[in-house]
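Run log // design_07
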């Protein structure tokens, strides 16, 4: 799940570019100049002034991939304080075919039956630990990688270009690849020209 929370308007990049040559845009925003300077001429520091804030829900496995990207800010749901959310849950059925939707509240499923069943088993073991009042600081070591987390993620346009070029590739982890395309889809339409050449063509 991806939701765009806030973004810097293009006029800030236009202003930054005009400062470099002391040639302000007379009216409106010079999108053609932003495209030429930032993308064609690779003077991409001028679009570092554009920031995007997203609300994201992903697995802990995907979070590890996301954390490898520099020049971003992450504020992540704390496992230290939030594991008690499992306290009042009934046991989770280990048979994947009969699992109700309660498990999807906590897990990202891969579509691989064996892996997803193992994740449900891990979720049930974690629930038992929490129900037995094992401290969160100890219980969280038993969290399956498929366990969902959420975060607010902030990134500038130059770093986002790099992120999209790497993570929309078919060689990227499937979940972060889906995330990358979802992030692109949530970018404001009038900003997408900055990123269209960063996307891997085969979606």
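design_07 sequence
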């Amino acid at each position: 799940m991806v939701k765009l929370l806030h973004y810097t308007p293009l006029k800030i990049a236009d202003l930054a570019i005009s400062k470099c040559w002391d040639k302000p845009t007379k009216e409106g925003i010079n999108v053609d100049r932003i495209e030429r300077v930032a993308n064609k001429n690779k003077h991409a520091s001028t679009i570092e002034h554009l920031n995007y804030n997203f609300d994201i829900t992903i697995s802990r496995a995907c979070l590890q991939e996301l954390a490898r990207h520099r020049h971003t800010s992450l504020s992540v749901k704390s496992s230290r304080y939030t594991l008690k959310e499992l306290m009042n849950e009934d046991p989770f059925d280990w048979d994947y075919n009969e699992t109700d939707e309660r498990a999807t509240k906590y897990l990202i499923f891969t579509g691989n039956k064996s892996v997803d069943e193992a994740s449900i088993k891990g979720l049930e073991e974690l629930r038992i630990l929490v129900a037995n009042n094992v401290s969160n600081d100890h219980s969280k070591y038993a969290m399956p990688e498929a366990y969902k987390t959420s975060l607010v993620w902030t990134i500038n346009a130059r770093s986002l270009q790099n992120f999209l070029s790497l993570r929309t590739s078919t060689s990227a982890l499937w979940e972060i690849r889906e995330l990358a395309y979802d992030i692109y889809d949530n970018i404001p339409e009038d900003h997408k020209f900055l990123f269209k050449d960063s996307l891997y063509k085969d979606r």
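The chain is about 40% helix and 15% strand.
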